[in-house]
Amino acid sequence: MSDAKQNSSKGSSATDLERHEQTIVVGLAGQPNVGKSTIFNLTTGLSQHVGNWPGKTVERKEGMLVHQDIKLRLVDLPGTYSLTANSEEERITRDFILHERPDVIVMIADASALERNLYLLAELLVLPVPVVLGLNMMDVAEAQGIHIEPHVLEAALGLPVITLVAARNQGVSELIAAAERLAREPAGFKPTRPKIAEPHREVLAQVRTLLGQYVPAPYREDWVALKLLEGDMEITEKARSWLPDADWSSVAALLKEHEDAVLDIASGRYEWIARMVRAAVIHPRLGQISVTDRLDRFAVHPFWGLLLLLAMFGLVFWLTFTVATPIQHWLDVYVIERLQGLLASGLTEAPSWLADLLVNGVLGGVGIVVTFVPILAVFFTALALLEDTGYLARAAYVMDRFMHFLGLHGKSFLPLFLGFGCNVPAIMGARVIGSQSGRLLTILLAPLVPCSARLLILALLTPVFFGNQALMVSWGLVSLNILVLAIVGITLNHTVFRGQHAAFIMEMPLYHLPNLRSIGHFVWNNIWSFLRKAGTIILLVSVVVWALSNFPGSDIEQSYLARFGQSLTPIGQLMGMDWRLIVALLSSFIAKENAIATLGILYGAGEEGRGLAETMAAVVSPATALSFLAVTMLFIPCAATVAVMYKETRSWRWTLFDVTLLLVIALTVGVIIYQAAHWLGIGVSGA
Amino acid sequence: MLKKLLYLAAGQGTTRITELASELGVSTVLVQEMLEDLMRQDYIVAVVPACLIPCERCPLSTACLFRNQPRIWALTQKGEQFLAISLKKK
To answer: What single-letter DSSP state applies at residue A76?
Structure first.
């Protein structure tokens, strides 16, 4: 036992302390926030001394107490997770144990997170000091369904284990009694210590032998050898100064050869922790984690998970068609067209070109795009619900497995998945991929993920042309994009990039009820962003399209735009498309939504009381519509995406390669679809 | 155990913590601890899904579909080298 050198006790406890000549020094160790301070305050009361650790800015708290006529000096050690010299707190704790040699260490652990706390105990047990384990927060552990059998744990660890609820002063005096007993009889302390895993046990012995008699007190050669193999910088520096150069060279050579020994040392500790927990802890009852696990059996299953993902996409489209499309149609027919009528009658005195620009150019283009807000609202609400419940993380995992199955890069799924919102962050997100080739491949594939703007076009046009089959057609077109993405990915991966599989570990968030406020925020932000786009870039393109379709004469078929579009009709005819559809496709390069705005302007002059959709259905055959939709889904990305693609690749060669590749794929698929429909005699005439 | 965890992670492409826990016969909490340890040793690195800038500074954060992120770790170069050497030895 240590002599009582410091005594800051006051009052009655001071009177008691003066009767004793010897004091037991107790170090109070543990991770941060396990209740050490509560125990320290409960046991030492007013007899505390607060200062700093020598040469450090970390607070040192000591206090005195008397237990059954025995004086104890309690030193509250800084909270630490381990005893490797990674932080000042860790150095202070181990230096205190090594240099001040306390009689006993009381380690406080959070019973509700025992596994996290036992690693520190594993490190304490290799130091020359007996340890008592105090399991605090037993009430919290029980509330979480974690049942710990202290006697079993005590037998397994080979050291005293005391259960506590320090917040209610339960078990604290028993803890002090156990510490005092162990300090008085340390000879009986024979804990079960963790062992270094087999492959490096022999190396540890070799290092220990080389250290031999050079290790000065208070250090011990077995502990120093262990720390050297762990790569502890402080001990490495000390050992270098202790050993003659020749011996140090041998040690250094061994350490260099066995850099991975740290894994076997840590593994020994984790295996020890696992053994202790298996022996003494009965883990949770049915709860949130179990619900998550049960749901995940399907949600992340290689087959059912993929089916569920496709079903979820189907559900999102079904909701959109059922709830939002009728509202969009109503807005188109009863709001936009009436507004156009009102505006036209209000502008009878204005120049005809101005009236036409505002009525057909602005309202016919931007107006039709704004009617998309209900579709957006439903679409983003559905996606936000899936995201906020934790499902989208599973979808990402399923997609990742699917990509691995197809031979694509493992990390690619993250940015690609973002592409369902917008291709721009998808391309920027490819920075997460370490390898240059994997990153480039992901950037090239990102535009094949159908973004929300393209999904909106699907949501508008498929119900018109395919009625009850709209859901299946939309689902099929999205699947077509994924299929093309997979084929292009596999081809590029096995030819140009020779990609490699990346190892990846993922921790899923728990499923939980969605937060309506955050969903509302997400939906509103997306709608607002869409409206801003409608008021700027879409408005500008609408005006340009209107101007080009109205000049030089009043006949749209003689306009500049028609002449330009007609020059491309030889290609368009292969897909059943007239010049209007071709121009709409090309205008989508500025922003995808422009395709709708352009169709609104070019087909908008239909009969009164018919929306854009019905007007188109009257003149465009289902085969052409299907071909148009397929090409739109696969077409070259918008200008913002191409710009970001160049910015991220820093290569016009790769940017133009991708644009050309997508153009070729889109046109080829469009031609195949139309020609196949034509050959089969399916939907080749307009309604 | 840590080496086995690395082998398992590398052998399965993307793997979940629950799968690793099941294979190793330990709890998910202990696997999380091991991952923290491997990260400190520079064998694995925590990957922020799809982004390198924090959400607070990202102009796209409000329109992002990846707010409820899974935590993800990937092998570092050191981890990949270790596995390559281990496989050669085997």
So the answer is: E
Chain B contacts of A424, Cβ < 8 Å?
60
- Contact by Cβ (8 Å): A109, A117: yes
Predicted complex ipTM exceeds 0.90: no
Under the banding of pLDDT at 50, 70 and 90, the label for residue B87 is: confident
CATH number of the domain that residue B44 is part of: 1.10.10.10
Among B3, B14, B17, select the one facing A400 at the smallest CB separation.
Answer: B14
Instruction: Give the whole-angstrom CA distance, residue A140 versus residue A147.
Output: 10
Nearest CA-CA distance, residue B41 and chain A, Å:
8
Do A575 and A631 contact (CB within 8 A), yes or no? yes
- Structural domains in chain B (count): 1
pTM of the model: 0.68
Q: Among A431, A506, A526, select the one facing B70 at the smallest CB separation.
A: A506
Q: Do A507 and B70 touch (CB under 8 A)?
A: yes
Alpha carbon of B88: minimum distance to chain A alpha carbons (Å)? 15
- Please tell me the distance from the alpha carbon of residue A654 to that of residue A660, in angstroms, as a whole number: 10
Across the interface, whether the CB atoms of B67 and A508 are under 8 A apart is answered: no
What residues of chain A lie within 8 A of the CB of B20, using their CB? 505
The parts of chain A modelled with pLDDT lower than 70 are: 1-21, 46, 48, 55-57, 85, 284-290, 401-414, 418, 432-435, 497-503, 554, 604-611, 683-687
The gap between the terminal CA atoms of chain B, to the nearest Å, is 17
Nearest to B37 by CA among A257, A89, A504, A267: A267
- What does the mean pLDDT of chain A come to? 82
Scanning A358-511, the segments in alpha helix (DSSP H) are 368-370, 373-388, 391-406, 413-418, 423-429, 436-445, 452-466, 470-492
Distance (Å) from the C-alpha of residue A275 to the closest C-alpha of chain B? 9
Q: Which domain holds residue B64?
A: 2-89
